[in-house]
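BUG: 3D viewer hangs when loading the predicted structure for this chain

Environment: internal workstation, default settings.
Expected: structure renders.
Actual: progress bar stalls at 90%.

Input used:
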Amino acid sequence: MRTRHLTILGAGLAGPLVAILLARRGFSVTVYERRRDPRSSAAEAGRSINLALAARGIRALEHAGLMGRIAPLLIPMRGRMVHEPGGGATLQPYGQRDEEVIYSIGRSALNRVLIEEAARDPRVTLHFEHACIGAEAARDALVLRDLRSTRTYEVPLSPTIAADGAGSPARTSLAEQGLLEAREDLLDHDYKELSVPASQGGHVLDPNALHIWPRHGFMLIALPNTDGSFTATLFLPHTGPQGFGALRTERALEGLFAREFPDVLPFMPDLLEEFRTHPQGHLGTVHTMPWHVGARVLLLGDAAHAIVPFHGQGMNAAFEDCSVLEQLLDAHEDWERLFAAFEAERRPNAAAIARMAIENYGEMRARVLEPSFLRQKAWALELERRFPGRFIPRYSMVMFHPEISYAEALRRGAVQQEILARLESQAGGTGAYDHELARQLIESRL
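Structure tokens produced before the viewer hung:
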């Protein structure tokens, strides 16, 4: 690379990680972030869905040498604790091996570690409260504003990595110039972040599970925190009798929770205040074409391909982006070829996980209650034991097998679902599948 300096927009999660990786390759990096420095300011309440760290993200963090600092922040979750409408809760394990767990981690704590690590490298310069106003490709200029003084200034655009999130100003600016096309497909569901405080310093629910209250058209989830609390998130349609539009009074909100989530309501003393003050977040999938403009700018992570959170893979996919980009440096000697190779490698995988994330919403809020789903899930785990390395449940491929790409997990998962559907049809409701038929199908198709 002739240019040994580059700019990174965004110091959320992907921005600091890619800064760390590129600085260790000898590049000097300047990072601009519109928010205040999280090392010296409180986290913004109500704006994030708790994060689930899985194998892909762990592999990228290990590659950067960061897992030693991050491990104390993690709480292992063995599976989904499904709270049924009629009462009672059942754990649906994510996998069948001890290591097949995912980890709950607070966004602000993780962000702090990443920023602290980036700041330790003298080749990384961090500027907080500096917002991107636009990326002017024709003038090769990145327009920035110091939010403390309102001073607007410019720095060279080439090369810039825009890791500035789902609402990326850089992406918006480039789209306005006709240099790329971008759209966001919004779900007709929004979310509110709530909390389940600790009681006497401990968790009031099982701390080693992701709790789900599936109610078909909507759901509540809760992820554990290291301080004994849970971060809960309510997902509802925009409108309708069970949507956010119907919750205009405290009585309506209390009625919803008393009717649908009675087991957790006693543990949410701040429900009314949090619902009133926390913002109503939107959910959507970002589609961008292309992800880069020559050698000038590359979109990475959510800026390129934000997804809905229902597979717990947004952060993991972004971290995988960072690792792939850094490894591609070995094969490419200029920024334009590097950016093009990165896009070619990651685009099919981003499309695959975007699709699987949306499909997983239907699974989480409804299918986890269906007998056929539970039966086929049990069969899938048995087939994995009988045909190790050949039949791997799609969820396991995504969460626990980073050596299998998202695109390949989607392809193989579709084949495996066809096999399970065939076995279900042959079983005729007996609850037992034909082992010989399963062997034939797996050996011929996988």
